[in-house]
Amino acid sequence: MSRDHRLRRGLPALNNSESETLSRNTERLLLLLACVATGLAKYWVSAERTVVGYGDLAHYTTLARNLAQGEGMWVNYIATWLSEPDGLPVQGASYWMPMPALIASLGMLVAGSTSFVAGKLAIIVLTSVAPLITYGLARELWNDRRLGLLGAWLTAFLHAFLYTGAVPVTHGPALVFGAGSLWAIAASLRDRRYLPVAGILIAMAQLNRADGVFWWLALIVCFRFAANARKSWLALWPAALGYSLAMAPFWIYNSLTLGSPMPGSLMNAALLTNYSELYFLPEQLSLERYLDQGPLEILQQKLGTAGKNSWAFLTGLATGGERTGGKHLHTYGPHILVTLFLLGSKRLLRRELLGFWVYALATFALYTVVFTHSGRTSFRAVMFALYPIQILCAAGSLLWILDRIFVHKPKIKLAAGIASVLLFAAIGLLEAKPAANRKAAAAKQMQVANTLFLEEVIRPAGLEDSLLLVSHDSVHALHAHTGLRVASIPLSSESELRAAASRIGATHLVIDDQAPKSPDWNTLEEIRANPAYTRVVSKRMGKRKVEIYRLP
Asked: Could you tell me the CA-to-CA distances from 507 to 189, 470, 510, 548 in Å, in that order?
C-alpha cells in the first residue's frame, strides 16, 4: 500500500526508517519463531493435562472421539434438558457448536489414537498461528511492522491463551477464527478479493461459537460505513458464497438429524431466571414465568451482568476473562498488559476498527440482555476473539514509551524491546503453568473418583449397560471417564422427573450426596421416602455416600 493511499484512508504514515531496519527474511523468521515458541510454550504448560476435565472440555473430547471412530456427531449422555432430548444418543451439536471437537478429531485421526493428548496437540497446532493473525491485523490496520512483530510475540505468551489455547475448548479457536475474521474484513475493504476468505473465516468462527455469526454484522457495517466509498450489498456475494460453502456440511447434517439447518434449543436459555435452571425441562420455561419476576428484578439482573461483562472487557488481558478474586487467580503480572492497553486504547477509535466494535457490542448485548444468566461465561470466552486488537493497543503503548525514553538510541531501544518481550513471556509462563497444573490435578482427581464409582458401585450392581439419571457435578466428565450412559437429573417435580426418565428410557436414579445440589434436593428427598422407588444400592465411599433407586 502506498503512502498516498494510506493517507487517503486516514491511516498513520509508517516510520520507514525504523521499520526497514529488519530485512523481510528476518521478519519472517521472527514470525515463524513466534509461532513455534507459542506452540512449544502451550505444550509445556499443558504437559500435565493428560486426561479429560470438567464440562465443555469433556464434551468436545467425547464428541471428537466419536467422530474419529466414525460414529458421527452423537454423544451418549444428556447434560441439560433444554435441547428437548427424547433418548440416547443425542446430537452432539444441538447445544454447543462442534469446531473444537472437529479439530481434535483430526488430531486423533492423524495420530491413530483417540486419546485426549492427541486431540490436545491438534488444538495446539491450530492456535500456534495466532501470532501471525495479530501481525496481520497490525499490518492491515496500521501498516506497522514493529507493532505487528511486538504484538505477535505478546500474543504468543498471553498467559490465559497458553492454557486455554492448548485444549479442545472454544477459547483458542475463537482467537484464531474470530480475530482472523476481523483481519479478513479489514483486508476486504482494501481489496474485494479477500471477501471469500472473510466468508469462510466467519463460518469457521460460527462453527466454533454460535455468536460468530455476528462477524457477518461487522462485515456488513464495515462495508457500508468504513470503506472509502459505500458499496452495493450485492458486492458481498463472494463472502456469502464462501460462508455458505463452509457452512453447508453442518447445515445438511443438522437438517438430516435435527430437522432444521441450525439447532434452535439455545433460545431456551434466554428464559432462565438463574443459572441452575439449566437443569429445567423445556416445558418449565415460559415467557410468562420469566416476566413474573417483575421489571425491577429483571433490570437489576441485567445491570449486574452488564457490570461483570464490562469488567471482563477491561481486565480480560490480566484475568483471561475469568472471575477476578477467585481462588485460582494469581495473575498479578499481566495487569501491566492491561495498563498498557488502557493507555493505548485511543487506537480503538478509528473507522477501520468499526468491525471490532460492532462484534464487541453485539455480543455484549447478547450475553447481557438476552442470555443474562448463562451469558457471563460466554462473554468471557468471546473476549479471546478481541484480544489481538487489545494486545496491539498495549504494544503501541510500549513502543511509544520506548521511543520516548531511548530517543536516537536504536540499539538500546531494540534491547529494551527484546527484554520487554522476555519479561512478558516469563510472566505468561509463570502464570499459566500453575493454572494449567491445577486444572490437570482436578481432572485426574475426578477421573479417579469416577473410575471408583464405576468399579465399586455400578459394576457390582450390574448397571454398566443401563441408562442412569445422576446427580453429578459434571455428567460430561462422568461419561468421558467411564463410558456410562447417563443423564443429569432434571430440576423438576417428582412426577415431571419420572415422565422425563420414561421418555428417554432411563431405568435407575443415582443420588450422590457429594455432588452440587443443582437438581431439586427436595424432590430427591421425596424420592427417598417414596416406596415406589426401590433402593438397590447404598454405599459409602469415604465421606461420599451413593444411593441408586430403580425408577417405577
From this structure: 59, 11, 10, 10
